[in-house]
Amino acid sequence: MTTQESNFPLQKTEDEWRAELDATRYSILREAATERPWSGALLDEKRDGVYTCGACNAELFPSGTKFDSGSGWPSFWDAVNPDAVKRVTDRSLGMVRTEVVCGTCGSHLGHLFDDATQTPTGDRYCMNSLSLNFKEETK
Q: Per residue in 35-52, pLDDT tens?
C-alpha cells in the first residue's frame, strides 16, 4: 500500500475500492502500479475540459496545462488548484521520486518531475492515463 493510508477527505476501505474499480485501475490507483507508456487512451486527448481522478472524480488538471512531454504518459504542468493533488516522497525502486496522489482520496496518479523547461512551471506531472477520467467542457 502506498499513501492511501493517510488522512484524505474521502475515506474508503480497500474492499470498497476493489468493488468500484476494475482490476487494472485498482492496481494503478491503489497499489501504485504503472501502465505501459504510449498505451493510455488519454495520451492524445486534445479537447477542452478537465482531467479528474479515476477513483473519485475529483478535478485534478485543466486541459490547458496538458503538454506533449514525449514520455508516453499524459503530462501536465500544473493542477487545477494547490489542494487537488498531494506530493509524497516515493523511495521505491531504489530511488527517490515525488509521487503524485489525488488530494481528495489519496489514489496514486503518477509522479512529478522538474524537467519540463518548456513549461511555465518547469514541472511535469507524469500521470497514468488509467488514473484519470476526462470531462469535456460544455459550451
A: 999 999 999 999 999 999
The CB-side HSE value for 37 (13 A sphere, CA atoms) comes to 7
Specify the DSSP class assigned to residue 82.
Answer: T
Could you tell me the pLDDT band of residue 3, with boundaries at 50, 70 and 90? very low
Alpha carbon distance 84, 106 (integer Å): 10
* E strand map for the chain: 49-53, 59-62, 66-67, 75-76, 85-90, 97-102, 108-113, 124-127, 132-136
3-36+50-136 CATH fold: 2.170.150
Distance of alpha carbon 120 from alpha carbon 3, whole angstroms: 28
Residues involved in catalysis: 126
Check: CB of residue 29 under 8 Å from CB of residue 21. Answer: yes
Burial class (CB in 10 A: 0-12, 13-18, 19+), 70: exposed
Amino acid identity of residue 12, one-letter, is K
Question: 124 with 109: CB under 8 angstroms?
Answer: no
